[in-house]
Amino acid sequence: MNIKEKFGQKIKSLREQKGISIEHLANISNVDRNYISDIEKGKRNVSITIIEKLSKGLEVKVQELFNYEE
Amino acid sequence: MNIKEKFGQKIKSLREQKGISIEHLANISNVDRNYISDIEKGKRNVSITIIEKLSKGLEVKVQELFNYEE
Q1: A69 touches chain B (CB under 8 A)
Q2: Residue A70: pLDDT over 80
Q3: Where is the HTH cro/C1-type domain (chains A, B) (predicted)?
Q4: Could you say which DSSP state residue B28 is in?
């Protein structure tokens, strides 16, 4: 699995743990809904500013988004 | 300081701790030398694939690049 896929899976699992929809995460993180959907599928080469927005929306430190138990 | 600046400072400090030049890091991480220079100045909205290349070049986990003692 490449880093985009790992990152996408982590966003999805954290979002589902919080019990929120993609729409809700899109609203609270100010990131486009379809973009988040693509991210979760590992399709996007996400930038650091989007990474920060998602970490704020998910209320976790940015580091947590890269915790993959390698 | 925004996330781009924090990230840039972290890359620079880790690189300097390892005692390697920007040129050397550019070679081992396969990232353009001028791009690394811009990253260290906080000018670049770095993507996740570049982040991974830099973590490999600096021989640290990606998480370490986002450890800013917030």
Answers
A1: no
A2: no
A3: 11-65
A4: H
Cβ neighbours for A36, distance < 8 A, ≥ 6 positions apart? A11, A22, A25, A26, A29, A54
ipTM of this complex > 0.90? yes
Q: Where are the domains of chain B?
A: 3-58
Quickly tell me which residue has 């490449």 as its tokens: A2
CB contact under 8 Å between A48 and B49, yes or no, is: no
Q: Which CATH number applies to A3-58: 3.30.420.40, 1.10.150.130, 1.10.10.10, 1.10.260.40?
A: 1.10.260.40
Q: How far is A63 from chain B (nearest CA, A)?
A: 5
pLDDT tens for B19-66 read 999 999 999 999 999 999 999 999 999 999 999 999 999 999 999 999
Q: What CA–CA distance (Å, rounded) separates A26 from B66?
A: 23
Query: B45 vs A49: CB contact, 8 Å cut-off?
Result: yes
